[in-house]
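Internal tracking record. Fields below are filled automatically when a chain is submitted to the structure queue. Please do not edit lines marked as system-generated. If the sequence contains nonstandard residues, flag them in the REMARKS field before resubmitting.
Queue: standard
Priority: normal
Entity type: single polypeptide chain
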Amino acid sequence: MFVFSWHDKPPHYFIGLSTENGKEAVDIVSRSVPGRFDFIFMDIMMPVLDGLEAARQIRTLNRKDTKEIPIISMTANAFAEDVQVALNAGMDDHVAKLIDMGILISVITKYIE
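SYSTEM-GENERATED OUTPUT FOLLOWS
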């Protein structure tokens, strides 16, 4: 999982942080200052706790920001039913691997504007 903050004043830049597994992802988000992260890229296939369950747990944290932060699924599972499973787990969008940079930029832009 990768969590990012977008610096909206020039010069624009991203600050990113990655985790090794879904449990670390939930722990990092739950310990962060509310509003610290602007969006999350969540891999579905992670050890310890998969991305679907990590997204569910992030959404159930007792904080306003964790209900609203965009969580974007990143997985090789790109069938329509895979996308729907991610959305049902609380994710907002889906980007299939191998990553198409045009699609990735389009998704990021949708959430930072």
